[in-house]
Amino acid sequence: MIDFNDQYHILAMALRLGKATNFKAVGKKGKENYQFLFSKLIKMIENDQDSFFIETVKKNDLIHSLEHTIDYYDAKKREDIQHIMENLKEDDPTSFVIIPSYSTTIRLFHDHIYSLIIHKNKDYIVTKINKLESMTTNFQLKIDEKNLNKFSDILYYSKFEYRKTRISVDIFSKLKKIAVEKPSALHVEMRGYPGITNCPILEPLTALKWTVYNCNTPISSDKIKEKKVINPKLWPSKDLRMRFYQTFLTDNEQHNQQFSILWHYYTMRKAETQLVDKEYKGKIRYLSIKYLNKVLNDPAVPIKFKRNQTNEAS
């Protein structure tokens, strides 16, 4: 279990009230962060008593698939990941693995997290979902079963500290080299990043939305080949985040009170944003930064979180 300050950082990013500054996405700390995040996603689905996310008959399958990500981070060797892939159900939208992945450059501020979603057909279907410039950065490729060893190798080593290499890295680009054919572009309509760099948490939440959308309305290869625009809109954003926020509440009233500060500012910003024309991206970006600053200037917000957000953390 990660400590309170790391939990606070994750919730803040989910509510677009915290930046990715000092968040670890790989290595030992990355494992802890993402296992915690996916445990919260699982709890959120478990708490769903009104089929908000998915119909009841598919609920356990969805939870089982989200557990694959936790298993991925527990993998001690490449064969462990290969075992996860081999045990995916064929032609079943509810059977998948979400892998938080990344692209990096030598310059730290250009690092970015996106998600890989893996299903099994006769081949392995890898879908790259990325909210950053979503109409041009999302793709789907196929990897032949005979390349499962190489596929598992790439995924296994992507868990570790990429900064040791001091080179540019893009996991999806590595996968393209072992793909059956050239990746198919996905024309996905999603809003991008209005002013806050919160990709380590926003992208897995987006991947969850995509997988549930695909469970309810399977996205056919024909639709992709015909270059039809896909809009994976399912739930009101506020409802999703409320359910996510509720998974953080425990018997610790002091922590609950501090988490509630984030929810308070989120609802305030949401109310103000609803008055703005969605096409006016500059205003939405302004509101994002405005409410981030409100959080950082609130004396009740944990001081360690504030230091983290202003790059004072060691």
Summed up:
The protein has 314 residues and is α+β, with helices and mostly antiparallel strands. The protein has twelve helices and six strands.
What labels describe this entry?
alpha+beta; 10% strand; globular; single chain
Protein model, in words:
- The chain is an alpha+beta fold and 314 residues long.
- The protein has one domain (4-309).
- Helices cover 48% and strands 10% of the residues.
- It is built from 12 helices and 6 strands.
- The protein has helices at residues 4-14, 27-46, 56-74, 78-86, 148-157, 171-176, 199-216, 221-225, 237-246, 253-273, 281-296, 303-309; strands at 97-104, 112-120, 124-129, 139-143, 169-170, 184-185.
- It has a 6-stranded antiparallel beta sheet, sandwiched between helices.
- The longest helix is centred in the last third of the chain and has 21 residues, at 253-273.
